[in-house]
Amino acid sequence: QAGYKAWLNYKRIEPGESNESPAAWCSRIAVNDKSSSVVMDSAVSELIRGIEAMLGRKPVIVSLEEAAAGEGGYLIIGTWDEGGALLDRTFDGQAHQAIGPEGYAIRTNRAERCIAIGAQTDAGVLYGVFAFLRLFGTGSAMDSLDLTDHPVNSLRMMNQWDNIDGSIERGYAGKSIFYADHEITTDHERVRDYARLLASTGINAIAINNVNVHQFETMFLTDRYLPAIAGLAAIFRAYGIKLFLSINYASPIEIGGLTTADPLDADVRQWWKEKAAEVYAAIPDFGGFLVKADSENRPGPFSYGRDHADGSNMLAEALLPYGGIVIWRCFVYNCKQDWRDRATDRARAAYDHFKPLDGRFMDNVILQVKNGPMDFQVREGVSPLFGAMEKTNLMIEFQITQEYTGQQRHLCYLVPQWKEVLDFETYAQGEGSTVKRVVDGSLYGNRHSGFAAVSNIGSDANWTGHLLAQANLYGYGRLAWNPELPAEQIAEEWIQQVFGACNKKLVQTILGMLMASWSIYESYTSPLGVGWMVNPDHHYGPNVDGYEYSKWGTYHFADLHGIGVDRTMKTGTGYTGQYQGPNVELYESVATCPDELLLFFHHVPYTHVLHSGKTVIQHIYDTHFEGVERAEQLKEAWASLNEGMDPSLFAQVADRLAEQAVHAREWRDIVNTYFYRKSGIPDARGRTIY
Ligand code: BDP
């Protein structure tokens, strides 16, 4: 079970470890809650659980009067709408205003001997409780707490790619915790613990099935599965998380007995309306539908000569009476064609499909756009759709599961990558039009917007296979809550909560490992943003030409002269023209294109000199040699933590890092050999290339 509790480990705080005695504040809890609610129940039980684990003594629940009359300090939690005079005295009107519906305020009220956690809503109280426990566990002084916080993004969503047979598409941590053998799980305990983990980071929505919806999952919208799904929705509801379903666009045909799924057909429209009514009867606070349509062999409106606006609006209309939303994915491209002309560059596809539709989507439709125009590579450009859709709700999609970034066998802390994307300047409304401002809705004043990401969890005891991959799950939620949080801070919080805060060397060592890991993985895999040098289908391990002659449109165009994809307007696919303002010229010109994206935008000779002063070929050799050395260093750094760490935690990570070091070598040798043979240019430093 090592690692199961993840960052809700609530490690015991030994007496003397903390500056004052937290027990003085935490042995009694008063709940300011007149209308009992499931979310408030979750908040109270989490608070009790956390404090009991950290202090070794269970706090008691007392009434407000008892709390005030008794000796010593206490905790008070609740919503101020309940008329709590104490909460009102503790927090001024400003705090009330500042935090919005999901925020919270925490303050030590010394005069009245209490620490108060207050919010407008029960969900806010729950987030406040998790934040308090985090502060407690990471050593904040209890006698001077004073903070308010609220989420920047309104929708903070998890996408499970789980299938009803128990498998997980691109899952690297065991089987599904939701499904087995075509049934929905009855192990609600595990699902509840997942809901706790998610809520503790601020996640408030989840789509519980794979975007590729097949025969059995299509039946999720029928009596066969709906009652059990309602059971899952109840678990998530208690943690402030709304449940969504991925749907099959062809449902009216497959389960409805209709002969068409044409979005403009009256019977089809009626069918979806009735379906929505049934779903909301079972799950009154159902979130809505997530849809992958006309992509990678999934059905969609194209079959009927309709477009994505027709398709999504039809569903949005059915959900509208209930406040539901349609999340429509923009990962749309033709996976069955080779490049015939420049217009079929896969990187162009999402923009080419969706940009012309801007303004035609209903207000309860959100387009879900992958961070990059290709597919979750270790490095690629930022999707030019961000900023380009002035009149459309947009959310960003990240991939926590490490499909192309080492599959949770290699260490790759992805928060720094995500932050680069979020901080990207689109120039859509002049300077300051960053991606994070598009997806938080502030740039264009959107009603709906936010974050989605593909989950990396499964039935493995530690949730994520690689223990350190938990930091990605944790970090995603924290970033969705507030994209300004530094990657280091997020990593440090995670480390301290999992391993304890008092061993400074351990915290610093793991922090260093996490922060270096993306660059290490990038250095021994595909170079300079070109991507895709993986084995087809499963996408693990090096295969330089694996996708080079396939129909998926993911080429590097390496020959004896050079490598890279010419995406310029002048001589290439014209993709650079999808960007705005100075970005167009930045990427169009080989002279200004950033090194790390050079081969994503340009085809250059191996002898082309980078801004770093190295040639492309020497860069490839050097980074691949260094990558292997740095993977070795990860292993050694971890080995130095042997003493004082729980042996089962230690061993599982040591095993993964040993495997990573071996596989990094394989990457190095295959990539270096390939380019040595193609180019005929030897390593300037004379190292042996196998
Ligand atoms: C790709 C995955 C594939 C997914 C697809 C998607 O390889 O399994 O179905 O994305 O996002 O990354 O729909």
TrEMBL record:
<keyword id="KW-0378">Hydrolase</keyword>
<dbReference type="Pfam" id="PF07488">
    <property type="entry name" value="Glyco_hydro_67M"/>
</dbReference>
<dbReference type="InterPro" id="IPR011099">
    <property type="entry name" value="Glyco_hydro_67_C"/>
</dbReference>
<dbReference type="GO" id="GO:2000886">
    <property type="term" value="P:glucuronoxylan catabolic process"/>
</dbReference>
<keyword id="KW-0326">Glycosidase</keyword>
<comment type="subunit">
    <text>Homodimer.</text>
</comment>
<feature type="domain" description="Glycosyl hydrolase family 67 catalytic">
    <location>
        <begin position="138"/>
        <end position="463"/>
    </location>
</feature>
<dbReference type="InterPro" id="IPR029018">
    <property type="entry name" value="Hex-like_dom2"/>
</dbReference>
<dbReference type="InterPro" id="IPR011100">
    <property type="entry name" value="Glyco_hydro_67_cat"/>
</dbReference>
<dbReference type="Pfam" id="PF07477">
    <property type="entry name" value="Glyco_hydro_67C"/>
</dbReference>
<dbReference type="InterPro" id="IPR037054">
    <property type="entry name" value="A-glucoronidase_C_sf"/>
</dbReference>
<comment type="similarity">
    <text>Belongs to the glycosyl hydrolase 67 family.</text>
</comment>
<feature type="domain" description="Glycosyl hydrolase family 67 C-terminal">
    <location>
        <begin position="464"/>
        <end position="687"/>
    </location>
</feature>
<feature type="active site" description="Proton acceptor">
    <location>
        <position position="375"/>
    </location>
</feature>
<feature type="active site" description="Proton donor">
    <location>
        <position position="296"/>
    </location>
</feature>
<dbReference type="GO" id="GO:0046559">
    <property type="term" value="F:alpha-glucuronidase activity"/>
</dbReference>
<feature type="domain" description="Alpha glucuronidase N-terminal">
    <location>
        <begin position="6"/>
        <end position="131"/>
    </location>
</feature>
<dbReference type="InterPro" id="IPR005154">
    <property type="entry name" value="Glyco_hydro_67_aGlcAse_N"/>
</dbReference>
<dbReference type="InterPro" id="IPR017853">
    <property type="entry name" value="GH"/>
</dbReference>
<dbReference type="Pfam" id="PF03648">
    <property type="entry name" value="Glyco_hydro_67N"/>
</dbReference>
<feature type="active site" description="Proton acceptor">
    <location>
        <position position="403"/>
    </location>
</feature>
<keyword id="KW-0624">Polysaccharide degradation</keyword>
<keyword id="KW-0858">Xylan degradation</keyword>
<protein>
    <recommendedName>
        <fullName>Xylan alpha-1,2-glucuronidase</fullName>
        <ecNumber>3.2.1.131</ecNumber>
    </recommendedName>
</protein>
<dbReference type="GO" id="GO:0033939">
    <property type="term" value="F:xylan alpha-1,2-glucuronosidase activity"/>
</dbReference>
<dbReference type="GO" id="GO:0005576">
    <property type="term" value="C:extracellular region"/>
</dbReference>
<dbReference type="InterPro" id="IPR011395">
    <property type="entry name" value="Glyco_hydro_67_aGlcAse"/>
</dbReference>
<keyword id="KW-0119">Carbohydrate metabolism</keyword>
